[in-house]
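Journal club side-thread
Mid-discussion, someone asked how the predicted structure for our own chain would compare to the paper's figures. Pasting it here so we can look after the session.
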Amino acid sequence: MQSFPVSCLGNDSIPRGSQVVQSGRVAVRVWIAGVLSLMLWAGVCQAEIYRWVDDNGKVHFGDRPPATQKTEKLEINTHTDWKPFDIKVYYQNQLLSEGSSTIDVSRIQRSVNLVYRFFDEILYFDFYKQVPVTIKVFPDMATYSAHVMKVTGRPAGYTKGIYIGQTHEIALYFHTEKMGGIESTHQTIKHEVSHAILHSLARLVPHWLHEGLAEQMETLVFQDGQFVIRPHEQNRAFLARNRDRTMKVLDFVEIRSDHWRAHSATATNYAMAGQLIYRLFSTSYGRSCVTRLLQDYKRGERLRSYYLLDKHYIGGAETFRVHWEQWSKTDMSQPRSVVLR
């Protein structure tokens, strides 16, 4: 495909108020929009599109940049409406279909797709390819634990479910009534789907953010055309009772992922991570901060959480700390739910 030159108009070459500059800028914008529209219409958006400036100061767009010029690869988003995925559900390693009398397969598929859709529409994670995940449900904790040990070589412990990265599967078991029954089972599915997404698309996400998102996905529902995140009452109550055991928030977000489970207050860590995300989701600037953090980690950013929070949170890391401490003193009772469109 041939390249398309555009004349460069620098801000310093012509007085700011000049009509020539204004009309030139409009012409350039219209031209670029037209070229990109034609590219998309013609289907060349499947190719990689580059931008470069030649020796005469002219801007070019094309899929075959010259080797002698410094080029910039353009990210052209052709993402359209999100579509649900077909999720495979197994019971004791037997593939089930909708209408199964053993498990409500349709509800499991809805639970999985709800989290996929939230990440896509609210957190702007584009699913150009399906996050590969299957659901394996076992009748009790014993058979679940045996499966986890067989696949991973490690004990499952007292977990309610687990995402196994090497086989791209979520394994769990039917929770007893004491644990919360079928509702707890579906909450665990949504929790582990969050891990599956981040494991597949953003490997560098720190543990507090990984677990905090998963904790709050447990309470995610879709009502009246909008996403609603309900408070995680168990986490809120646990943290309120154990406030003296919680770390200072700026130390907490700096816990290395490989030290997470070794920390003496693991249960407190999970509750605090979930409440942190709930607090962030409750404001527009907090949601923006979460989105920016995830996009940074998705692109491979290796800066510590403190510095990224200082960069993305309104008022910086110190304001983040103050907001968390003030909210904690109110027992985190507000808001009663978070509505996201």
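Post-session note: Residues 204-341 form one domain.
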